[in-house]
Amino acid sequence: MASEEGKKQLASQQTVRLGDQAPDFTAQTTLGKLSLHEYIGEKWCVFFSHPADFTPVCTTELGKVAKLKDEWAKRNTKVIAYSIDSVEDHLKWIQDINETQNVTVDYPIIDGSDKSVAIRYGMLDPDTLTAEGLPMT
Residue 32 and residue 29: Cα distance in Å, rounded? Predict the structure, then answer.
């Protein structure tokens, strides 16, 4: 069962629907503080999320996204990733991804430790809770 704080987080989630402009936010990332809309500029954007750093599938997926760097550029597209962990954890994870996937991850990964972006995008799962009763992404 969700804790009181977990219930509060779930109740504050927003909804993003098809056709909506992606909500802007400013957050710390592995490339420093950035605003989503400023980062995107006039380009397309692939904004993708993973539940936690260092999970095997997520590691290979972030590696594949890095390998497609030239393809993203051809399509006038920027990529940005989100995970619930901190920038410090993301930087360690990037080292692991670069080593195990033989790539260079040079796109930003958003610090999700405060859950503000997850709440803004309605990404909290009411059925998957931490031991403290907080919703996970």
Answer: 5
